[in-house]
Each structure stands twice: as C-alpha cells, then as structure tokens.
C-alpha cells in the first residue's frame, strides 16, 4: 500500500510537469506564428532560447520516469502510463523544435516585405495548439473518445496546409521573384502540419495507455 | 466448635471492614474526578473557576450534567459565530472582481472564489485538491506561484494565457502554509491602452502632414520664391488651405471631446427630418455638382417628427453626405432616403462609390480611421466619429453596409417624438 501511494504521488508530479511542458510548447507554436505575422525578431530569438528550457524539461521528466521505474517497479497499467509519458514528452519536444524552426524562418525572413497577409497559417497554428491542449487533457482524464476526436481534426490542418501550398505555388508561378519568400512560408506551414501529426501520435499513445491496444487511429494524408 | 465460629465471624467482620474501606476510597476517588470533570466543563462553558457563579446542584452528578449543558450551548454559539464569519468571508470573496485562490504547501487548491472559477473555466468542486497548474494550464503562471511557494516571497507578473490568449495579472503572496493567489483579467485594460496609443499615434500623424507641407512652403519662400510674385501668391494660397485644415481638425477634435464628455447638452425638440435633410443637401449640392454627382432626395411624405437637436442632426447629415461625395467617382449618384421603423425614423445615405472592404467596415466610425489613406487625403478622419457620437447622444444607432466597387449605405436612426 505504501509503495502504491508513493508511486501515485510521484506520477501525479510528473503529470503536472507534462502540463507545464505542454503549455511551453503550445505557447511556442502560437508565438512563433505571431512573430512571423508581426515580423517580431525579438520574440523569434526568445522562442529559440526558450526551446532550451523545453528540452531541459523533457530530460527532467524522463529522469523522473526512469527513477520511478527503478525504485517502484510498476506493473501493468502503471507501467504503461510511464511508457506513455516517455513517448508523449518525445512528441512534445519535437513540436517545440518545429516551433523553434518557424522562429528561425522568421529571423531568416527578417524585414523582407510580406508576400501576402497571413490568414491560413495562423489558423493552422491555432488549430494545432488547440489539438495539443486537448490531447493532454485526454491523457490526464484517460478519455479515449476525446483522443479520437482530436485525431479526427488533423484533417482540418491538412486541408489548410493544402490550401496554403496551392496558394503559394500560384504566387511562384505568376512571379518567380516571390519564390524565396513563398518557399519559406511553405516551410512554416509544413512545420505546423508536422506538429499536428505529432499531436495525433500523442492521442494514439493515450488510446494505448487506456486500452492496452496499440492502433493507428487516423492515417494522416502527409 | 464455638472457637471456629468465632474465628469465622471475626474473619468475616475483617473482610467486610476492608471491603467497606476499599469502597469508600473508590467513592472518594470518583467524587474527586467528578469534581475535576465538573470544573473542566464549567471552564469550557465560560464560567471562571472559583467564581461565585455556582450551579444549583453543587457537588453532585447533576452539577456535571448542568455544566455540560452549558458547555453544549456555548459550543453551539461558537459554531454559529464561525458560520456567520464564513458566510461573510464567502460573500466578500464572491463579489470581489479578482480571482482568489488558496493553495496549500504542495501547491494544491484548497479554496477558490467564483471569479477564479470563471477565469479558469472550472467549478470549485472539480478544482479543489488539484494542483494549480492543472487548473491554470499555463506554465508561466505556474512558475510565478511555484516561485512564491519556494522562496516564501511575494511574486507577481502579467501573463498572456495559453489557449484563451487573455492577459492575466497574477500576484502570489506566501502564507504560513501555502500561498494566496490573486488573478485579474487585464485584457480589456490592455485593449483600452492600445486604443489610446493608437489615438496618439494617429493624431501626431495627422498633424505632421499639414505641418510638414507648411514648413516646406515657408522654406521655399525664404529661399527666394517670395521675389516671384506669382509663385508667392500660389504658395500663400496653399498655406492658407493647410492652416484651414489644421484649424478644422482642432475644432473637430474639441467638438468630439465635448460631445463625448456630454458637456454640450443637446437642444432636443420635435424636428421635421425631411426639412433638415433638404437643408443639408442644399449646403452640399455645389460640392456634389463640382464632382459631377447626382444628389437625389427620396424622402417619403408625412414622416413623423423626430426628437433631436436640429444643428447636430444637420451636422451628421453633412458629415455623411460629404464622405459620400469624396468616395464616389464622377457620374455617380448619392441618394438620401428615409423610412419609419417602430418608434424610430431611419435615414439612409447611399452612394455608388468605391465601397468599403469588409474588414474595414467595423472600424470606419473610429477616430482617424481611414480605409485608403492615399485617397482620403483631404479629410481629418473625424467626420464619421463625430456623426456616431451625435447619433448615440440621441439614443440612435448608426451603421454602414457596403459592397466593394458597388457603393456604401450609411444609415442612422432617430427616435420619433411621442404624440
């Protein structure tokens, strides 16, 4: 009994750490696109420094998980939840890296004149951030329904990506001088599309953790 | 035989004596503890030890019962006092505009008020006992709280919350066991601050343009242009136009602030709207003709009188029609029409002009808002803002509908006079 309470107290601490890390990554995604919209190099640089902190948080959580396995020898669903956490933090860290990538593109763009007002790219960021937030909620409440719902929304991000891609290609076809700028925006959209895919991975992990069955829920278009 | 009986009797007597002695000691011990217990109950009930307030049945079990009864009454009183205090505290906390949370030393929520529930979108039932981060879902806010719990020092900061994107100011004060957290939503204040900043930026921009051209004209004159009579005349004329523009802006700004602050009361009386419309249209007809525009009045007969300030209503019409003239290309049409809707008269000014993009439409009544700065060079950017404030002072509404390339209709309402 004593073992179990210690285990669950520590597990809860780790869950709080995951919420904090989720918030860090979510803000990085939103802020990177805001920095792009406002050509805000200062924010872009800050995102890059803060990604260090996200990475540290990831190792910190990983360390705690390993200690928990070593000292408490969890079994069955307890063990699955720790494995799930180890996977989630890897995905979160990758999403953080995508946001950092966008920040780097913002710095690359510098003060070049904007190609077009950004509409769909901020929408992709909003959608991805909301999916990310709800995927972690689904994990904490062991809600496979919510997890599946988040996965189903990945289509919307894919559709926005398609739209951005087509629009930017049409710019390039019309005027080759826009190729550099348009390509950079395509990278940004691509990073967001990948981030949303990582969120669906988190959701698959949630389903595995709850049901014990590994399954691919929704195959992404990309 | 007798000897044995005697010995037995003596033995029995001895036994009963010792039993009696034992019992007596017991009783005396019981009485002592009874007395102590009674004293204790009396103290708890608030009767001072050794006080003259003696109970009727002194030194008996009844005395203890009586003291206990008093004690019970006292406890009830204390409990109801506590309830009352708690009620007061809850009332204060629930009416407070800031979110208030109490955290224990592990950072778990032990209490939160209604505002906090609303700010974090969580009911207190589900929030109690949970760690702060799982409620706030924001690592920056959580950092402030954690720092407070670790350092035992007051911490504060402003955070743009993940998700809702609202601005929260958060103040965490350490308590002996845990922390008190105050959260305030600053989003609206931030918005107002931004409006103020924009206003100042706009006004300095609007002032700079005429001042820069005045400066350029004066400098050119100083550099010798004054000797050329014809050029000098032209320059003076242009300087006159620029100073007119500055003067107009100054008077419109003070007008706007007067209307907004309610310092210039309206001279309300029943008005014939059709008459006011005719007068405003006549004032602007020369301008419309110069711009080769047709100005059409399409006012129904027998409009009920409205309640309004004649000069102010005319000013609204002039500002709106003037705007229409500016943004309608030659050979266009400006139509002023009216209809009655309930206890309101609606007056619409439609043009066949360039129209307003949908994203600009909500802003055209803001001060200095210009859809196309290149085209609207002449205006102060205050005309529609003034119109809006006058209409609102009349308890009317003003709104715009537009289709790009087709034209714009601006409609405002005025209350009809009660018969």
Description:
The complex is a heterodimer of chains A (222) and B (419). Helix content of chain A is 84%, strand content 0%. Chain A has 222 residues and is mostly helical. Chain A has a single domain (2-211), classed as Methane Monooxygenase Hydroxylase, Chain G, domain 1 (Up-down Bundle), CATH 1.20.58.220. The longest helix of chain A has 37 residues, at 2-38. Chain A starts with a helix and ends in an 11-residue tail after the last helix. With 419 residues, chain B is α+β, with helices and mostly antiparallel strands. Chain B has three domains: 96-185, PAS domain (Beta-Lactamase, 2-Layer Sandwich); 189-261, Orthogonal Bundle (Helix Hairpins); 269-415, Histidine kinase-like ATPase, C-terminal domain (Heat Shock Protein 90, 2-Layer Sandwich). Chain B is built from eleven helices and twelve strands. Chain B has helices spanning 2-44, 61-95, 114-120, 124-127, 132-136, 139-151, 187-222, 229-261, 273-290, 310-326, 383-393; strands at residues 99-103, 109-112, 155-160, 167-175, 178-185, 269-271, 294-298, 306-308, 333-341, 344-351, 398-403, 407-415. In chain B, a hairpin with a 6-residue loop joins strand 3 and strand 4. At the A-B interface, helix 1 and helix 4 of A face helix 6 of B.
């Amino acid at each position: 009994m004593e073992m179990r309470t210690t285990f669950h107290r520590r597990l809860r601490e780790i869950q709080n750490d995951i919420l904090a890390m989720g918030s860090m990554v979510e803000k990085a995604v939103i802020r990177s696109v805001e920095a792009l919209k406002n050509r805000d190099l200062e924010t872009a640089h800050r995102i890059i420094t803060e990604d260090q902190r996200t990475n540290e948080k990831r190792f910190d959580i990983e360390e705690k998980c390993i200690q928990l396995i070593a000292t408490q020898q969890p079994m069955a669903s307890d063990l699955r939840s720790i494995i799930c956490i180890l996977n989630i933090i890897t995905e979160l860290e990758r999403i953080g890296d995508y946001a950092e990538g966008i920040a780097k593109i913002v710095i690359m763009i510098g003060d070049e004149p904007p190609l077009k007002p950004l509409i769909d790219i901020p929408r992709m960021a909003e959608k991805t951030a909301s999916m990310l937030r709800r995927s972690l909620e689904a994990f904490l409440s062991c809600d496979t329904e919510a997890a599946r719902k988040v996965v189903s929304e990945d289509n919307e991000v894919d559709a926005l990506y398609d739209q951005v891609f087509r629009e930017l290609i049409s710019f390039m076809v019309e005027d080759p001088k826009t190729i550099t700028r348009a390509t950079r925006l395509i990278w940004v959209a691509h990073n967001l599309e990948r981030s949303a895919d990582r969120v669906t991975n988190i959701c698959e992990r949630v389903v595995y953790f709850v049901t014990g069955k590994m399954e691919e829920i929704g195959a992404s278009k990309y | 035989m007798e000897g044995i009986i005697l010995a037995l009797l003596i033995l029995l007597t001895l036994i009963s004596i010792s039993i009696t002695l034992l019992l007596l000691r017991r009783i005396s011990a019981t009485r002592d503890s009874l007395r102590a217990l009674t004293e204790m109950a009396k103290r708890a009930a608030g009767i001072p030890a050794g006080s003259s307030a003696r109970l009727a049945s002194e030194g008996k079990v009844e005395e203890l019962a009586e003291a206990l009864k008093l004690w019970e009454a006292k406890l009830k009183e204390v409990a109801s006092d506590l309830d009352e205090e708690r009620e007061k505290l809850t009332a204060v906390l629930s009416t407070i505009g800031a979110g208030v949370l109490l955290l224990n030393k592990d950072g778990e929520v032990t209490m939160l008020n209604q505002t906090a529930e609303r700010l974090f979108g969580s009911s207190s039932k589900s929030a109690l006992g949970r760690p702060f981060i799982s409620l706030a879902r924001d690592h920056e806010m959580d950092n402030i709280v954690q720092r407070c719990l670790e350092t035992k020092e007051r911490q504060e900061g402003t955070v743009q919350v993940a998700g809702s994107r609202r601005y929260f100011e958060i103040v965490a004060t350490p308590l002996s066991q845990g922390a008190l957290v105050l959260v305030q939503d600053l989003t609206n204040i931030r918005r107002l601050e931004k409006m103020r900043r924009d206003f100042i930026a706009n006004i300095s921009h609007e002032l700079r343009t005429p001042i820069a051209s005045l400066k350029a004209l004066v400098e050119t004159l100083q550099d010798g242009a004054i000797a050329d009579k014809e050029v000098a005349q032209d320059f003076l004329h242009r300087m006159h136009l620029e100073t007119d523009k500055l003067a107009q802006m100054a008077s419109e700004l003070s007008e706007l602030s007067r209307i907004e602050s309610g310092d210039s009361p309206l001279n309300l009386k029943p008005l014939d709207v059709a008459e006011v419309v005719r007068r405003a249209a006549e004032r602007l007809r020369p301008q419309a003709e110069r711009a080769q525009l047709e100005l059409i009045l399409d006012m129904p007969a027998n409009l009920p009188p409205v309640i309004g300030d004649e000069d102010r209503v005319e000013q609204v019409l002039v500002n709106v029609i003037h705007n229409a003239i500016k943004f309608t290309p030659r050979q266009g049409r400006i139509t002023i029409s009216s209809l009655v809707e309930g206890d309101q008269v609606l007056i619409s000014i439609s043009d066949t002009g360039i129209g307003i993009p949908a994203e600009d439409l909500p802003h055209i009544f803001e001060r200095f808002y210009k859809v196309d700065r290149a085209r609207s060079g002449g205006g102060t950017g205050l005309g529609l803002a003034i119109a809006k404030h006058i209409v609102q002072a009349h308890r009317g509404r003003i709104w715009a509908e537009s289709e790009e390339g087709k034209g714009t209709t601006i409609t405002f309402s005025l209350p009809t006079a009660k018969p």
